[in-house]
Specification:
Number of domains: 1
CATH topology: PH-domain like
Distance between the termini: 27 Å
Structural class: alpha+beta
Largest sheet: 7 strands, antiparallel
CATH superfamily: Pleckstrin-homology domain (PH domain)/Phosphotyrosine-binding domain (PTB)
Radius of gyration: 17 Å
Order of helices and strands: HEEEHEEHHEEH
Strand order of the largest sheet: 4-3-2-1-7-6-5
Length: about 150
């Protein structure tokens, strides 16, 4: 897939910001963090050789052009070192939601029927014990980076 000029410029800026080549990029939805509540933010997840980044997009609709926004947009960004992660695996959305709300300690893999009808979530587990939960559009290369 050929990138347009704006996309190329965006990724060049991220390379300047991080000081490293971007070796993975995907659209993503950051669903939440263990016992911290749901976030449900859409954005980009990308990685360099040693760190993973996520940043959200400002949500807009056709209505935004007609009605002035009351709330100021605050960009959400976060990152972590790859060495802090202990693994990445596919989990069911319901068990991830239970972990995010603090009702469960460990997410479970999706069952056969769940996997057929629902998009999986991806759990990134940390050596410190916490987890991040994402819906990823292209997870394969990130799985390879984290599970090496």
């Amino acid at each position: 897939m050929e990138e347009n000029k704006e996309s190329i410029e965006f990724w060049e800026e991220k390379k300047r910001e991080t000081g490293k080549d971007i070796i993975f990029k995907s659209f993503a939805r950051f669903v939440g963090e263990t016992a911290k509540g749901s976030t449900n933010l859409s954005g980009l997840i990308y990685a360099t050789e040693d760190r993973v980044y996520f940043e959200d997009f400002e949500k807009s609709s056709m209505l935004d052009f007609l009605v002035k926004k009351k709330k100021k947009y605050d960009k959400f960004t976060m990152n972590f070192l790859l060495e802090e992660a202990s693994g990445m695996r596919k989990v069911s959305e319901s068990s991830a939601a239970a972990c995010i709300s603090g009702e469960a300690q460990e997410a479970k893999p999706p069952g056969f029927l769940t996997a057929l009808f629902n998009s999986p979530l991806w759990e990134i587990k940390f050596k410190s014990g916490g987890c991040y939960y994402f819906e990823l559009f292209e997870p394969k290369d990130l799985i390879s980076l984290i599970n090496k």
